[in-house]
Fold this protein.
Amino acid sequence: MLPPFEETLEDHLTRVERYMRGCELLQFPRQPSPLRTQLASFIRDHAAEIVDEWIGLIAPVYALLPEQIPEIRQNMYDALLRWAAHIENPHDIETYVYLREHARHGFISHSSPSRFLSGQTKIRLLIVERLRVAYVKDRKQLVDMLNLLDQEFYERVLHITDFFVEAREEALQDEEESHRKAMDNAPAPIFSINGATGTIIRANREAEKVTSFLQHELSGRPIWELHPQEEQEEVRQLSLNTNGHGYLSRENLRLLTKDGRVVPVSGYFGSLEHRGKKIVQGIYVDVSERQRLESQLIQSEKMAAIGQLAAGIAHEIRNPLGIIMNALYDLSEIVDTTNPEVHEDLQIAKDEIARAQDIIKNLLEFSRESGTEMEEVNLNDLLRKTLQLMGKYLQTNGVKVATSFGKVGVCTANQNALRQVFLNLITNAVQAMPNGGVLRVRTQRDADRRVQIEFSDTGMGIAEDHLHRVFDPFFTTKEPGQGTGLGLSVVHSVIKRYQGNISVRSIVGEGSTFLIELPCPCATEKRRKDKQAAPARA
């Protein structure tokens, strides 16, 4: 059986007529008749004066504003004419079409039922007064007309009462539906909980998705059963005490899923009253991502601290190396360097100290705080230095490097920023080849004179559904502690800052290639200026 507000108007009218007939309220047939025509004509003839008197009486009672009176007068006048048409011909239901619509969505819906019905009752009394005067000498006709008027008025009151109730029920259902949709479409798991027993009444779709339980599996279940044993008493008290406090929350909770996974959450419980019943609404916020970001931030801070420590150590090592180099120079002046073995040993020592000094120099450049200053950067040279610095790391991980540097010239950029880009891409490539492999680094200029820098590895590759996210901040497929999730995001940000572009192509099991394209007009501009200056120098 449909709720009253969903039935058709025809079904509604039939139902009310059945009630009236069963209660013996239909004294006059619901067919056109001379008596009906006479009463309808009387109402039409006196409609204007009745409405004028009515407006004068109800305006102060209803606190009507002067600017509202003309519209209300016209509305009541039109309503009287529609009612008269129905009295004359009960099959003319325009008056009820209008009343039903406006009781739900029109101006009538803004009134309380008592206010509207008191106004209708006064209209009836004003009609009665005029009938008594007009038919004072025809007692029988007066009685018949008054009885017909009462029958039609009783019918009108029943319809109006139902229309108001239907409108309120429809509004309530719309509100409940809106709340249900908002709850179901919320991005966090939400549970409606019985505040007296702590059992789940219903859960939204996100709750089903996160816990892997279906709605019927969650309904009737105590909310604390979705938590580990050591948290259950705390959550039980939380759900049962919320009605007394209005709002309670807990951080660092864990939600258990159907397949045994644990989801770190924060729980927020609030008390709601609906149709006289108090319920508790529990909202769980998944903090997995927040915890991951916090962990990555800590990791980033560790990396920064290690960088500062490395810079300090590099400074401390540089001085002893300088002393050793001087000692070797003095030694070469003393010993017999014509001896091939002595000469070779001294040269090896000098070469290794020079290599150590180069490593220290690069390390200090990497750890130097990066500003925003722009300078001419020799890309090939910067790549060589970066690979030299990473040499031991590459060797330890069994990664061989193959380079192919074209004539790309210099590029105006921030050297430290580009150094960070190269460092991140090389590190990612090595981590993608846990069993070793080959890293190919290539530079060239394309037909549009854009500089291309390509890093290719023979690693595990990137899944296709991850490719579009690799440059998102904090996105990583690595295990905790193996990366900050910031590397490629930083790379993307730096390249875009220089109006460049970075793209990636990958095949799972074969490897990945990152291609950087930079406009770098500076090399072209430098050659143009050199050509212009050549005649002058000649």
User: Anything to note?
Assistant: The two ends are 103 Å apart (CA to CA). Residues 523-527 have pLDDT under 50 and may be disordered. The longest strand covers residues 262-274. The chain has 17 helices and twelve strands.
